[in-house]
Amino acid sequence: MLTVKLAKTPAERDHCYLLRIETFVRGQGVPMSMELDDHDEADALHFLGTENDLPVATARILLIDGAAKIQRVAVVESSRGKGYGRDIMQAMIDNVTEHRRAEALVLDAQTHAFNFYERLGFVAEGDEFDDAGIPHRRMRRTV
């Protein structure tokens, strides 16, 4: 079972960063300079998912122009297929709704994950685009 919480301490955020590096930098070849940025320590809300106290999932939210932009959704390879991506997404949706952080949630979905986000109520907007050599599409869900 996945336990999701807002990562508030430096150690919790470090777990989030390490999961992202493993997933995106090592796993997908995203340059480190594109993965970690100034938002990480300045204004991002980081979510950390643990299984038996081990970090296995992460994602972050940036509040931009009245929307909560979900980014960096990652589940370690050994924990995929257990519904943890859905669980961390639902925790973020619930957090934004409960705290009235924004009126809409937006994300840039890798095209291979498009159906996953559709099942969570996100709707595609605009054309496909490239980000770090990976095809993406903007998606939105109202709160």
Notes on the structure:
- 27% of the residues are buried.
- Helices cover 34% and strands 39% of the residues.
- The model has no long low-confidence stretch (mean pLDDT 96).
- The chain is built from 5 helices and 7 strands; from the N terminus they run E-H-H-H-E-E-E-H-E-H-E-E.
- The protein starts with a strand and ends with a strand.
- The protein has a 7-stranded mixed beta sheet with strand order 1-2-3-4-5-7-6, with helices on both faces.
- It is globular.
- The chain is α+β, with helices and mostly antiparallel strands and 143 residues long.
- It has helices at residues 10-28, 32-35, 39-42, 84-98, 114-119; strands at 3-6, 45-51, 54-64, 67-75, 104-110, 123-131, 134-142.
- The chain has a domain at 3-102: Gcn5-related N-acetyltransferase (GNAT) (Aminopeptidase, 3-Layer(aba) Sandwich).
